[in-house]
Amino acid sequence: MMQFNRQSLWLTTRDYIFITIGIFIYGLGFSAFILPHKVVIGGVAGISTIVYFVTEKYIGWGFPIPATQFIINVVLLSFAYKIVGWQFVLRTLYGTLMISLAMAILIPLFPEPLVQGQPFMNVLIGSIMCGIGLGLSFTHNGSTGGTDIVAAIVSKRTNVTIGRTMLYTDMCIISSSYLVFHQIDTVIFGFVVLGVVAYVTDMIINTNRQAVQFTIFSPYWEEIASAINNEANRGCTVINGTGWYSKQDVKILLVMCRKIESVTIFRIIKSIDENAFITQANVNGVYGKGFDAMKLKVNPRHHTQNGR
User: Fold this and answer.
1) Which of 40, 54, 85, 235 is deepest in the core (most CB within 10 A)?
2) For residue 60, how far is the Cα from the chain centroid?
């Protein structure tokens, strides 16, 4: 029990460490590359940016972006807890606190864009960093709040998906920046940020889960299977087949591994049988022992007296 508790504590601590790192990468990309060009992005960060520049324009003092972020997220969470549950609220509250802290530290450090005279390059670099930060946070069960909260509420009440809700919300926020700055280029840059961040975030998340499926035909299938078991620490499934041209029985090996392990599998096969016939297919999501766990809530099945 003590070992399990220590392992659970370490995994939780590791998640929060990577969530924090991801949030600060996101904050650096936004503060050093995007905000100095007055580009409004999606989410609460975009709303906070609009509030900052509007207050600066009309009262001569911009209301701090981190403070606006924190206030909006707390208000959204107060409405959300009855709908999405306390677990989502507590997980999101940490991300909310850290994103506000990151912005408070980093924004004053970059009054000017890090790359001078290159607005598109700054927006592109900032978008990539934001996507990396969000992807890193999401893969460790983190949440930065904002439109995540709105999307979670809408998905509970309607059939609209979370991704679609976030897209619609972010598009409205970015489009509204034209009413403030009256510059179409900042709106276009905002949509560039939206697209790049979404793409990079998905790439980070999917890369972490991507797997490869090998189908191997070889007369030396026993040696190959044993080598894959012992050297690559991956399991093999042996399938009986028949070669229709030769009318002879053959053994087929089915192997699942992480994408980064595919080179190791290839080397093992070729070191034993250079003439082996191999097919490789990318698989997005493999669940079970040695891979990802299925994180789904299911109702327990009730067994009858017959055991069925």
Assistant:
1) 40
2) 38
**Structure tokens that stand for 224 in this block:** 């190959």
pTM of the model: 0.69
Kindly report the length of the chain. Answer: 308
Q: How far apart are CA 308 and CA 306, in angstroms?
A: 6
Residue 89's contacts (CB-CB under 8 Å, 6 or more residues apart) are 77, 80, 81
| Terminal Cα-to-Cα distance of the chain (whole angstroms) | 33
Tokens encoding 275: 């003439």
Enumerate long-range contacts of 202-207, CB under 8 Å, 24 or more apart.
202/135, 203/131, 203/135, 204/131, 204/132, 204/134, 204/135, 204/136, 204/138, 204/139, 205/135, 205/138, 205/139, 206/284, 207/259
Question: Which residue is associated with the tokens 């489009």?
Answer: 175
Instruction: Give residue-wise pLDDT tens across range 78-128.
Output: 877 776 666 667 777 888 889 889 999 999 999 888 888 899 999 999 999
CB atoms inside a 10 Å sphere around CB 261: 17
CA distances from 42 to 21, 50, 153, 181 (A): 21, 11, 18, 16
Tokens coding 113:
């864009």
Cβ 69 vs Cβ 45: under 8 Å: yes
